[in-house]
Design brief:
The complex is a heterodimer of chains A (about 425) and B (about 325).
Chain A (H helix, E strand, L loop, with lengths): L3 E2 L8 E10 L4 E10 L2 E7 L7 E4 L1 E6 L12 H10 L2 E6 L10 H14 L4 E5 L13 H6 L2 E5 L8 H14 L3 E3 L4 H4 L4 E2 L2 H6 L3 E2 L1 H18 L3 E3 L5 H12 L4 E5 L1 H5 L21 H13 L4 E2 L8 H4 L16 H10 L6 H7 L2 H6 L15 E11 L18 E11 L2 E5 L1
Parallel strand pairs in A: 2-5, 6-7, 7-8, 8-9, 9-10, 10-13, 11-12, 13-14, 14-15
Antiparallel strand pairs in A: 1-8, 2-3, 3-4, 5-16, 16-17, 17-18
Helix pairs in contact in A: 4-7, 7-8, 8-10
Chain B lengths: L30 H17 L14 E6 L5 H12 L3 E6 L11 H9 L5 E6 L4 H8 L3 E7 L5 H15 L6 E5 L6 H12 L3 E5 L15 E3 L10 E4 L17 H8 L11 E3 L12 H4 L6 H21 L15
Parallel strand pairs in B: 1-2, 1-3, 3-4, 5-6, 5-8, 6-7, 8-9
Helix pairs in contact in B: 1-5, 1-9, 2-9, 3-4, 5-6, 5-9
Classes of the chains: A alpha/beta (about 425), B alpha/beta (about 325).
Chain lengths: ~425, ~325
């Protein structure tokens, strides 16, 4: 995991006795005792009975906003990675839309330095495709890659000019890191706050049509295909986008996609509450879109769950819906939300969810997939699938509490997280 | 595949305890609520025929008007309605207030709340402002217009006007003409008219008729000739101030007026015409139509006073009615 930055090298020794070990990648689903010594899995033995807890490869979040540098009041590397640890993550990838933007080796190196001191779990940093994410000039991608960039994206904004994205795909080959795109055609989403549909018509919101996403998905995939370069599509929300991705993959394009827990669990109907914690970009869409996303996650068209964890200061969300910034938090609730909403009702197998939250996202960025195997570094999450808990403001390690799940009761709890051999969370 | 039961978001509504009644959206009202309010308005209309127009009903109550967006008729009629009922009224406009110094809506509401108002009437350019107000003041909140979302008292006064003029709303056909996209008046009126059993047709250029709005129970036409069949033609203002620059909703006002302007030739003689004001004479409405006998525009303004008296009175004297929320669909 060369692009991940970890803090000190402490390695823990611990034993998980009689747990249900579930590693979809290794084809393991049995009750075992797993021993970790100095951060490495050293022993896996059959156990009788078992305590019903599930031990799985820890999660990888390919899309978080750690707000550093610039908005450390909302999140910093320490609080964000503690939130990740509490959510069962052993690695997160941070987006570069900070202030200043991560578009130069100097900014990136300072971040890497700070992560070495404060990150609770390993962090990878994506750098901007274009300087200042202005969509005009390419950032110095090779130097950024050499300085530790895990990939490139202008997330939060699309790369509007097709010629520029083409150049990024071409030149990015020299940098050897994946390129990820936020698909939004800005003249189609202008002035929009929610999905264009029944709810926007009734409430009077400027509508953000599905086609604003899917035309960019189609265009970006066409460029990736033409340049024969891999491309990762961030936070997909619309059925048409999923259809485009499925077609491109069938045609041999090395394209991948991710989807957020909120797009998998909620629809535009939730916006009727006018709660600013239901405002995000891309917006919550129709039930038809939601079911297409669930289906794509199940069949592997979409390989990864990404929280798009986007902390916002309380006062910025305590405003009328229309004035509120886009974005919700998600690191600490992702597994429980999806377990409650998709696994328990029988829509998605548990093993599929675990894979899409761990090996799936790791593969997109060329990271070593967390696995449960003798000799492997310990990246483990211990889950209690029976536990129910309430999401309330006081429960977050994140500095921000703009969760779409405030007040909800969820099933499934992260008990312990081991990241890079270190016990980083214990409930 | 099995469907999933979406999450219920009950905790995000305005607080339930103590239960207070608000008028945030027509969507929160039942037919019987509307009938009760219209009956009350009729009572107040009779009281205004007397020499002494002031009623002691709300003496000692405080009504705060918070107007963050310009308004002539709505703010003046709320103020006069409160005064006619002997309430103490305080009117605050965003210009000249701490809002200009960057005070947040929440802080303004907390400040106002320190005076223990009974009712806060709020107009704001952004959707959801009255809902925020309902969270942060202990008062009853009346939405006097939030962005493009709702303007419930306008819809009630329009129902009252139609009811008075045509002897009922049920079964009538109302054509709403023009810039529906930017119109909170249109959205409130569609809901109110459909609730009371009227048939509603929206008429206008396609970019100004929101996609999927037929889900509100109305019909859609892009042909101005269709207004002739209606009992009432409700003309909307072209809201140039809400239009995004360069959005090209219509190529030009000249072309809009030529195709969708409401002119005497496009109406039946004596056909009833309404407009929420302020009018752009010569744009969406021909001056000859605005001043014709069939024009109910002035009646609408008169109705505004008694309907707002009814709303204030009802909020402060009737028992609690919970704010109704959108039922999030449960799929088995």
């Amino acid at each position: 995991m060369m692009t991940l930055v970890a803090s000190n090298g402490r390695r823990d020794s611990l034993v998980f006795e009689g747990v249900r070990v579930l590693d979809p990648g290794q084809g393991i689903d049995e009750t075992l005792t797993v021993a970790v010594e100095e951060g490495v899995i050293v022993r896996m033995e059959p156990a009788a009975g078992g305590n019903g807890k599930v031990l799985a490869p820890a999660f990888v979040d390919p899309h978080v906003h750690l707000r550093t540098p610039g908005r450390e009041d909302e999140e910093d590397l320490e609080s964000g990675t503690r939130a990740a640890a509490a959510g069962g993550y052993c690695a997160v990838l941070a987006m570069p839309n900070t202030d200043p933007v991560v578009d130069s080796a100097a900014v990136l190196r300072a971040l890497v330095e700070r992560a070495r001191e404060t990150a609770a779990v390993p962090v990878g940093f994506l750098a901007a495709i274009t300087k200042g994410q202005q969509g005009a000039e390419l950032s110095e991608m090779v130097e950024l890659a050499e300085s530790g960039a895990a990939g490139f994206t202008d997330d939060g904004r699309p790369v509007v000019a097709p010629g520029l994205l083409r150049r990024a795909l071409q030149y990015g080959a020299a940098a050897g890191r994946p390129i990820a795109v936020h698909c939004e055609e800005p003249t189609l989403s202008r002035g929009a706050h929610v999905h264009e549909g029944v709810v926007s018509a009734e409430l009077g919101f400027g509508g953000y049509p599905s086609v604003a996403e899917s035309v960019m998905v189609g265009r970006d995939l066409a460029l990736a295909r033409y340049e024969a370069r891999p491309l990762h599509l961030l936070h997909l929300s619309a059925r048409e986008s999923v259809d485009e991705l499925r077609r491109a993959r069938a045609a041999g394009v090395a394209a991948t996609g991710e989807v957020t827990p909120h797009h998998l669990c909620l629809t535009e109907d939730a916006v009727r509450s006018l709660d600013p914690n239901l405002k995000m970009n891309p917006p919550l869409r129709s039930e038809d879109d939601r079911s297409a996303l669930v289906e794509a996650l199940r069949d592997g068209t979409i390989a990864a769950v990404a929280t798009d964890h986007a902390p916002h200061a309380r006062h910025e969300k305590e405003v009328p819906f229309e004035e509120a910034p886009f974005g919700v938090t998600g690191l600490e609730t992702a597994f429980a939300a999806l377990y409650t909403q998709l696994v328990e009702p029988g829509v998605l197998p548990l093993a599929t969810l675990l894979e899409r939250m761990s090996a799936g996202p790791a593969a997109i960025y060329g990271l070593e997939p967390p696995r449960i195997e003798v000799g492997a570094p310990a990246n483990l999450v211990l889950l209690d699938l029976e536990a129910t808990w309430h999401v309330d403001e006081g429960s977050f390690r994140s500095k921000s509490a703009n969760s779409w799940l405030l007040g909800e009761k969820l099933r499934g709890r992260v008990l312990q997280t081991v990241a890079a051999g270190k016990l980083v969370h214990s409930a | 595949m099995a469907d999933v039961r979406p999450l219920l978001r009950s905790e995000l509504l305005p607080p339930r305890t103590p239960v207070r009644r608000h008028l945030l959206s027509i969507a929160d009202l039942e037919r019987e609520d509307v009938e009760r309010l219209l009956a009350l308005a009729r009572t107040f209309a009779r009281s205004l025929e007397r020499d002494v127009k002031k009623l002691p009903t709300l003496r000692g109550r405080t009504v705060v008007n918070l107007f963050f967006e310009s308004s002539t008729r709505t703010s003046s009629s709320f103020e006069l309605a409160a005064k006619r009922l002997s309430a103490d009224v305080m009117s605050i406009k965003s210009s000249g207030s701490a809002v200009e110094k960057g005070e947040s809506l929440k802080d303004t509401l907390l400040t106002i709340g320190a005076y223990d108002p009974d009712v806060v009437v709020i107009r704001h350019a952004h959707i959801g402002a009255p809902h925020l107000a309902a969270r942060y003041t202990p008062a009853h909140v009346v939405n006097a217009g939030d962005g493009k979302h709702q303007h419930p008292t306008q819809a009630l006064l329009d129902l009252y006007t139609i009811d008075e003029e045509l002897g009922g709303v049920e079964g009538l056909h109302v054509a709403i003409v023009g810039d529906v996209l930017h119109s909170r008046v249109a959205r409130s009126n569609i809901q109110a008219l459909v609730l009371m059993g009227a048939r509603v047709t929206l008429v206008g250029p396609p970019p100004l008729i929101p996609r999927r709005i037929e889900a509100m129970g109305c019909e859609i036409s892009h042909d101005i000739r269709d207004v002739k069949a209606a009992d009432v033609v409700y003309v909307l203002r072209m809201q140039r101030e809400r239009m995004l620059e360069g959005a090209n909703y219509v190529p030009s006002l000249r072309e809009y007026t030529a195709r969708w302007g409401v002119t005497p030739e496009r109406l039946r003689p004596g056909q009833r015409v309404m407009h929420p004001g302020p009018m752009n004479r010569g744009v969406e409405i021909d001056p000859a139509v605005a001043d014709a006998d069939g024009s109910l525009v002035e009646r609408q303004v008169r109705s505004g006073l008694v309907v707002r008296m009814a709303v204030l009175y009802d909020l402060l004297t009737q028992g609690p009615v919970e704010v109704k929320v959108a039922e999030i669909e449960e799929v088995a």
